Structures are given as C-alpha cells and as structure tokens.
User: Fold these one by one.
Assistant:
Number 1:
Amino acid sequence: MSSTRAHGGALSHPLPRHYAALLVGNVALALGPWSVRLADTGPVASGFWRLFLALPLLAVLAVRNRQPLTGFGKGAWAAVAVAGVLFALDLASWHIGIAATRLANASLFGNAGSLILMAWGVIAAHRRPRLAELAAVAAALAGAAILLGRSLEIDHATLVGDLFCILAGFFYAFYILLLQRARDRFGSWSLLFHASLTGAPVLLGLALFLGETVWPHNWWPLVALTLGSQIVGQGLLVYALRHFPPLLIGLALLTQPAVAVLAGWFAFGESVGWIDGFGMVLVAAALVLARLGEGPKR
C-alpha cells in the first residue's frame, strides 16, 4: 500500500500537467493489485519486493529533494521504526486480501484508513462530528454491508479477502498517525525510505513464516508493482496534490475503483452487478467525504 500524502494550499490555477499527474498517479496506484495477482511469488512476498526494490530509488528521490536520510533522534527513529512495521502489516494484509477478493473491493476497502483517520480527528478535536462526517460513516457502513454480503454469496474466501483489506486500512491509519509530526521535518520521501527499510524485513519474515514462494521466476510484475505503486504513483501524487483543493483530491480517488473494476473484468473475468456497483458507489462516496482533508493513499 503507498503511503505519503502531500499537504499545503492549492494553487488558484492548476496547469494541465498537474491534472495529468493527478489522474495518471491514481491510475498507476489502481493497477498495483493487478501486479500482485500476476506475481509468481506469494502475496506477502510481493510486498517485500515492492519495498526492497524501491529502496535505491527512494534514497535518490530523498537526496534530490534535500530530505535527510540520517540525523534522526532516538524518539523519531523509534516512531519511524514502529511505523515501518505497521506499513509492512498494512501491505501484508492488503496483498493477502488482493489475492482472495475482487480487485475493486480490494481498492475500496484498502482505503478504509481514511475513515479511521477522519474519526480520530473528530475524537482528538473533542467535538461533535459534522454532518458530512456522519454521512461518510453511514455510507461506508451501508456500502460495506452490501459488498461483504455479496462476497459471502460468491465464496467464503472472498469475504475473508475483503476483511483482510479492511484490516489493512486499520494498520495504515495508525502508520499515518505515527508519522504525522515527523513528515514535515524529514520529508515524505525520506520517511517512506526509512519506513520501507524497516518494513521490508518484516514482510520477508512473514512470507517465510507463511511458507510462501519468495524468489520469483518472472520479475516484471514485481518491477511493475515497485515502479507503479511505490515510485510513479506516489511520485506523481506528491507532485500534484499540493496544487488542488481537498474536494478535487477526494474526487480523483474515484478513478482507482473504476480502473480496478476494468482491470478485474479484463484480466480475471470479474463481473460487477448493479447491487455491487451500488455498494461501491456508497463506499467511494464515503471515502471522498472522509478525504476532504487527506490525499489518496495508494
């Protein structure tokens, strides 16, 4: 799952290249689950390669953007290390879910961390939730109930896959909360490098514990996963998100489940009925409402 969000005010007049970056970044992230499915390693092992192969490129991006790779205090390093473990658990849960459920469901439920962050913001501010926040929770619960019910009708394993993707959203939310204060000081690329450096051994250990195939015979799905999800998708979003208001950022998220539906149908013959579509619309609407203060995740 990717893991940086850009902050800052939006430009008054975004240029065409900013719109293109926002769109292409979301499409690249939406195709990540496709690469996980095509990899001939286990799903958790593919997460390990996603982080491990990205480390040199992340280091270069951090240095080019003048973000420090050293000089972390003990407290900051401990927070980043724990965040890296949570990032690894996020990817492990999400990739297991991707292997078991429909790509569209994985894309939607994998972003559930946005709703958790929204709820945490309400609790931390000691205030009553706004109408939009209540609407987001209601839409999410209704949409999730529809999609989980439909998954249970298809196969028990599909339901389990959905639940793993929702669990990934929980891990991701706590990962972001840990990095919230350190992000402005150290920079997004630097923090992503250190989180990946800490998370990669955790994913490798989990893959070996689960008895997964770790060494691939076909490298291109893993290279595509690394470049698409960890570098191109994240890089374009880091570049584009600061140029847009939160509402447009939230609406751009809708491209991810749309692309995932098409990828699932084209590559794996996954069909989506009108009831599934209605549930997806409800969950997507909830994510847009929840992300009015946050940028897209993966």
Number 2:
Amino acid sequence: MPEDHSPSDEQLVKDLRRGDESAFRTLVTRHHDDLIRFLTRLVGDRTAAEDVFQETFLQVYVSADTFDVTRRFRPWLFTIAANKGRDHLRKKGRRRMVELSAPVGGGDSGRPASFVDLMEVDIPAPDAALDRAEQDEKVQEALDALQPTLKEILLLAYFQRLSYAQIADELGIPLGTVKSRLHAAVAQFARHWQRVSRDARSE
C-alpha cells in the first residue's frame, strides 16, 4: 500500500494561517461528508445541516489563528459544529433536541440492534424490516426525542469516536458527567427507538 503523503489537518491549518486558501478548501472537502452526517442527525434536516456546515467552516476560517495546532483538529471542528447546530435549534425554538455498541432492541430476526448499527444508515442490513429511507427517518425521530445535551454528546461520541477522557476535555465537563450523560443518552435512545420501531411495525 503506497504511503499517504497528504498533509495532516493540523498542517493544513498552519498553511491556512499563512494565507494558503487551497488548504482551507482541502479541509472543507476532507470533512464534508462526516460533518454533514453529524449535523443532519443533530438538527434533523439536510438543508439546515448544509447551512450550519457553511457557518461552521466560516468560524474555522476566521478562528484559525486561535487553534492550538498541538491538538487535533477534528474534535475542535465538531465542537464548533455542535455549537452552531445548537444555535440553529435555539433560533428555531426547538426544545426537543454506556457504550455505543450496547444493544438497544428493535432488531430484526430476534437480533438486538445497537446504536452504532442504527447510525450506519448508509449500509442497511440485508434483512432490514424497514427500507433505508424509512429506517433513516425512524432513527432521526428517536434522536429528536432526546434532550438536547444527551443528543449532542451521543452524536459527538459516535462521530468523533473519542474516549470518555477526550470528550470531557473537549467539552470542558467532568469525566463522570460524560459517563452519566452517555449512559442516559443510550438508554433514552433505546426507549425511543423501541417505540418508533413498534409503531412502524403496527402501521
């Protein structure tokens, strides 16, 4: 396998600070798909997610000089995106807002689904009872029923794949708070997913 010589995110931020606009375009392209998926789940709408994505990278552009290049860029980016998404939901007046591999129920053929399974909507299971679009809609419905702080930390944990300690560091909250919020978030999501799955089967 050929060695990857592409610059790191952190190097690209350094290049951006020196006025290299192509470095910024590379960062936008590199993180577009993951960040759009995260924001679509967070704000519940693809069009709104695109708007928040633009706002996020505008903030990255104007705040590049404040980024500590000894740290990782991706958590910083997703934290900005989460803040922008939260602002969007607040403006719209929307009040809805353990381990991720823990089973949450509602699986097919007696198989318990997990949060990670459900978030991988781009690769639906062959024996899925709901087709891709329907499952995507139901997952979003379950996510939207979560409290805002729980929804945010669950999505950040999933998309960033950070440890408890890293999440605590990036969000500026105690390690115990991270653990309790994630535990509560997974439990709440499980209850809501079982409800929407049951409702879907009874339709």
Number 3:
Amino acid sequence: MSASLKSKLPVALAWIIGVIAIWEIGAWSLVNIFHDPMATQKLPFLHDIVRVMAQNWASLMDSASVTVSKAALGFLYGSIAGFVIAIVMSLSRNVERVAFPYLIISQMIPILGLAPIIYNIVKDGDTARVVISAYITFFPVSINTLGGIKSVEKDRLDLMYSYAAGKFQVYRKLIIPSAMPYLMSGLKIAAPLSVTAAILVEMLGTDEGIGVKILYTLYYGAGGATMFWASVITSALLGILGYVLISLAEKLLMPWQNTTSKRGGEDA
C-alpha cells in the first residue's frame, strides 16, 4: 500500500463512519423523538437499506450494468468530442471566438428539459441515454482541456519552435502532455454526470436500467421505500465508481504527477 493511500484511508473511513452515524441517528430521531408515522418512508435505517441491497443484489447489478454500459458509451463519445473541440479551438483564435459562445449556450439548456426532447427525437431509449451522456460529458472535457492547452508556458513553446519543431510535434510532445492533468480533471467531473444523465433518460420511459428501478419503487408506497433508497444508493455508487476509475487511470497514465506531488510535499 502506497504512502498516499495510507494517508487517505483514515480520512475516508472517518467520512464513512460519520455518514453512517448521522444517517442512523436521523432515522432513529424520526421514529423515537418526532414520532413521525412516515419515518420509514422518509428516511429508513441504513442497516435496513443495506439488508435490502444484499437481498436484491443480483437485480440491482443487472439494472446497474445496463445503465453503466450506456453511460460509458456516451462518456467515451463525449470525451472524444470534447477533446477534439478543444484542440480545434486551440489551433485557431477565430474558431475559438466563434465556437466558445455556442459551448456556453449549449450548457444553458436545462438537462431536465433537453432529455425529453432528445428522447422524443430519437425514439429509442438506448440512443437517448448515449446522446445525453455524451452531451453532458463534452463540455467539462473541452473547457478543461482548452484551459490546459492555454496554460503551457510561452518559454517552452518558444524553445520547441527554436528547434524547428512542427505544429504536430509541439502538440504531441509538449502541449497535450501538459494539458493531460486538466483533461483528467474534466473527465473526473464528467464521469459521475454521465451516469446521472443516463439515469434521467431511463426515468422517462425506458425498459431497463437503475433509473427504471428507482421510478418503479416510487409506486410501491411504504413497501418500496427501502428499495427506493437501495436503488438511489446504488446509483450514487455508480457515479463514485466512475470517478475512482478515472482517478486510477490518471495515476497509470501520468505517474510523473505522483512523483511531482511527493517532491512538492518533501520541499514543503
């Protein structure tokens, strides 16, 4: 186990224990202090939710796998689109001036309003999930990547050009490696959002997915409250999983980042 992981583990455990304690105390208070007759629907005990998750694990995983497959595909397409858009804007100031306002405007459309429109246009739940996941992914990826490209120091660029490096070489050997941390930051933002986007489309009327399970449990009344929370927590875990996977990819693709961080800590 690495030193950085050892240092983060106590913090993570403290957060987990804190959330469990607050949740259980809140559920207990609704029942025993406020005597709320709807307590089990509003906030079931966390241990009951975990029990239901264990009992319905296979069903939850089947639904989650459908959601993840569509979200991952949209995430891939959106990431590629965002990266290409950033590269194109960095190559031409005029293109950036024309395209950037459209990028901003595209994000002003509420996803809750856009999802039904896309769903009605494509008439297919699978395609709609991919499109919406890609749509919500490309913006943070493109903006963060463009910021990384612009952060490259002018002295380094001048040095590359002084060695008669071509545009392609400059991007391949300097600009893109320098922008990678920014790109990974955008991917870490987009990964959980792509899952949320897929779930939103599923709740509009698809046949399968964790969003469908969440929607169905709302109709079960008091009997479905615990299953509803189990589905919601499963959805949250999917988003966390996406973030963790991108973080692991960042460590594998950019090992020098870890070395730099350690040196920075030692210098401090």
